[in-house]
Write a structure and sequence with these properties.
The complex is a heterodimer. Chain A is α+β, with helices and mostly antiparallel strands. Chain A is built from 11 helices and 12 strands. In chain A, the strands form 2 sheets. In chain A, strands 1, 3, 4, 5, 6, 7, 8, 9, 11 and 12 form a 10-stranded mixed beta sheet that branches. Chain A has a two-stranded antiparallel ribbon with strand order 2-10. Classes of the chains: A alpha+beta, B alpha/beta.
């Protein structure tokens, strides 16, 4: 039996392909939107995965250090070590800063850590040039997205920092690039006021601020100890909030990016609906263009089933090709986005399913129009 | 119904609309067309020629009456089958003023579409299509698209399509309207030849009186009735 869909598409091949490409670009944007959401999840977990610690100890009754401000004393890291089960501890600071560059300021999150400590937040596998921070002062490791290179000098606060290492793929939960500096430098940047502010405070009778504060203490445990038990001990005896790695992950993904993900989800759903409407309109237009031929076919006795098959096959092929073009388009452009875009195969399959369902629904409009075609219209009577 | 009769119509009525908008097109048509006969259907414009043709072709539903196609009664105040399209596909070949070929199918695909839909194999349907195309002197155009052929060639393809399902009846709606006299004569002679050789009943709607001498008989719609008459002797083609 002659495949009418194949013949019709071959007859208007260029137009069909361009149409599929157009719809495909729309589907590509849908994939990118899903990828942006996946990227946010991945970004949120980069620092957690690189640190790979069991517990996060933060200011009591806060969701610190990422979701809420948290300030605790640095020396807590020493007192935590005496708790049964604790193996290593490290004090960390996190702060947003603007790095000056030649053209514009770059927003980054600075991670302050003790370069001589036992827990290092820099994953060696992520270093693509230079080395980690090994001195107490004025060294900085930057993400490659920041745009600095090795030995670049960066004036920050009262001092000038030298870039000693470049990492790849290190971003904060908000997607800003990470830079790493020593804890002392970080504390100075975060807690040490300017000279004029200090003089002003003295005039007001205020004592100088304590710069030996950090935002969080991270803890690893000896093997065999219950994470929950140790966490409860710290909460009870040190009056701090303590989160396991999984809890911190939940805070990052739920509290920090939930609204953004909902926004993206809604936008993606709207794009899918728009794509469905566009496919439906295209199929309707394609059917309208063929109404004369459909009337002739009905007049010479071609059954509805063959005509419907032609329309449904064309719609499904349009959807399938649009999906292929969408994938190609998204894979071509996803690296150009400033924030991480993660394209995952299961998401593509899900979209494929949605496109096929949308195509079938869209074809109903064309089929309805075709069924209503009057065979007598073929001869104008 | 006798074995010679191919089309028989009894007391066929067709009205459009109702109440004040009622339009009476045909009021009790009675006629028959035999196998091997080429009959011209003539009437002024708007008199209902195409409507009558479409009723016989099971496209337009009559208001009342009876229609036989071949040995089968297909209409008796209602369609006697739900599959009128199957009747068209299996018993009737249509030829129109314009060729109305499917533009995205090539010549041989246009000709074999109906037979293949009827279940004839691709091989057998193509063999018959080639035979028909050779018969109409367009065998070398089998793989051409309709847009690559002249109007006359396309009309011959359309006639081949109408014959491809070995129909018992051919309904031709002004097949010569777009052709010059010489080509019109060729087409009508061809229809006459087909009627005789393939024992097919042909009804041809025409406005062209010059074609009437080539037909066996004339059906004329007069005062909403169908009147059968012989071909007038005083009309001659050039």
């Amino acid at each position: 039996m002659i495949n009418l869909a194949q013949k019709d598409i071959a007859h208007t091949f260029g137009k069909f392909i361009v149409t599929a490409m157009g719809v495909g670009m729309l589907l590509g944007i849908v994939l990118i939107m899903i990828g942006v959401y996946r990227g946010m999840i991945v970004d949120a977990e980069v620092l957690l995965d690189d640190l790979n610690v069991d517990l996060w100890v933060v200011q009591e009754n806060t969701l610190g250090p990422f979701a809420e401000a948290s300030r605790i004393h640095e020396d807590l890291k020493n007192t935590l070590r005496v708790i049964d089960g604790v193996d290593k501890t490290a004090a960390l600071t996190f702060q947003n800063i603007q790095l000056p560059s030649k053209f514009k300021q770059v927003r980054v999150v600075a991670v302050g850590f003790d370069p001589f400590g036992t827990i290092n937040p820099i994953n060696p596998e992520r270093i693509v040039a230079g080395r980690g921070v090994i001195r107490s002062h004025y060294e900085m490791v930057v993400s490659d997205k920041v745009g600095f290179k090795l030995k670049d000098k960066i004036p920050l606060g009262r001092n000038i920092y030298t870039v000693v290492g470049v990492t790849h793929g290190t971003v904060s939960s908000g997607g800003d690039p990470l830079v790493y500096i020593s804890l002392k430098d970080a504390q100075e940047l975060q807690f040490l006021y300017s000279n004029s502010r200090i003089r002003n405070d003295r005039a007001r009778g205020l004592s100088g601020g304590d710069s030996h504060m950090v935002n969080s203490i991270v803890v690893t445990l000896h093997k065999g100890y219950s994470i929950d038990k140790v966490a409860d001990d710290i909460k009870r005896w040190k009056h701090k909030s303590v989160y396991t790695r999984e809890e911190q992950k939940t805070i990052l993904t739920k509290n920090l990016i939930e609204r953004a993900s909902k926004q993206i989800g809604l936008f993606t759903a709207i794009l899918v609906v728009v794509s469905t409407i566009i496919i439906a309109l295209i199929i309707y237009t394609m059917t309208l263009e063929k109404m004369k031929e459909i009337s002739i076919m009905k007049l010479i006795g071609i059954p509805n089933s063959i005509i419907i098959k032609m329309i449904v096959q064309e719609t499904l092929l349009l959807g399938f090709l649009a999906f292929i073009f969408g994938n190609m388009f998204s894979h071509l452009i996803y690296t150009k986005f400033p924030k991480r875009v993660v394209l995952e195969i299961p998401d593509a399959w899900m979209l494929f399913l949605v496109v096929i369902i949308a195509s079938i629904l869209s074809s109903f409009i064309g089929v309805k129009k075709a069924i209503s075609a009057d065979p007598a219209a073929a001869i104008g009577g | 119904m006798s074995s010679k009769q191919s089309i028989k119509v009894e007391n066929l009525v067709k009205h459009f609309g109702s109440g004040d908008n009622l339009v009476r097109v045909i009021e009790g048509a009675d006629f028959q067309v035999d196998k091997g006969e080429l009959v011209a259907l003539i009437a002024p414009s708007g008199a209902g020629k195409t409507t009558l043709l479409m009723m016989i072709g099971c496209v337009e539903e009559p208001t009342s009456g009876r229609i036989w196609l071949g040995d089968d009664k297909v209409y008796d105040n209602k369609w006697l089958t739900r599959e009128t399209r199957k009747i068209r596909r299996e018993k009737i070949g249509f030829i129109f003023q314009a060729h109305y070929l499917i533009p995205f199918l090539n010549v041989i695909e246009n000709v074999t579409l109906v037979p293949q839909t009827n279940g004839v194999s691709k091989k057998d349907s193509e063999a018959k299509a080639k035979e028909l195309l050779e018969y109409f002197d367009i065998g070398n155009k089998a793989r051409a698209m309709p847009s690559e052929l002249s109007g006359g060639q396309n009309q011959r393809v359309a006639i081949a399509r109408a014959l491809a399902n070995s129909p018992e009846i051919i309904l031709a709606d002004e097949p010569t309207a777009a052709l010059d006299l010489a080509r019109s004569v060729d087409v009508v002679k061809m229809l006459k030849k087909i009627a005789i050789e393939q024992d097919v009943a042909v009804i041809m709607v025409t406005h062209d009186e010059a074609m009437l001498p080539l037909c066996d008989r004339i059906l004329k719609i007069e005062n909403k009735k169908v009147v059968s008459s012989d071909v007038p002797k005083d009309i001659h083609i050039l």
